[in-house]
Predict the structure.
Amino acid sequence: MDPISLDEKPKRPKEEDGGEDVGQQEKQHQQEIHVYRRRWYILFIFSVYCAYQGYIWNNFSPITYALQLAYDWSDGTIALLANWGPIAFVVCTLPFSYIFER
């Protein structure tokens, strides 16, 4: 039995179909992932922006009575104000995704 040297890498078997070394295939599929601090910063800013937008859209619920007196709006109209953000998102998603992909 031959001694195995620590400096030598063991040979990997070749794949029968493609004839390509299995180790090379693994290297091609591996990617290095870098985590940058600016990604966390962007995620934080985006989260704060989304929370602020939710706060603004839900701002009308506590002042329902005042809006009814001032503008003569019904409860349904005031409740719809909180839904305009999601409605606009659903309506605009497909056209804007088409524009961005062009």
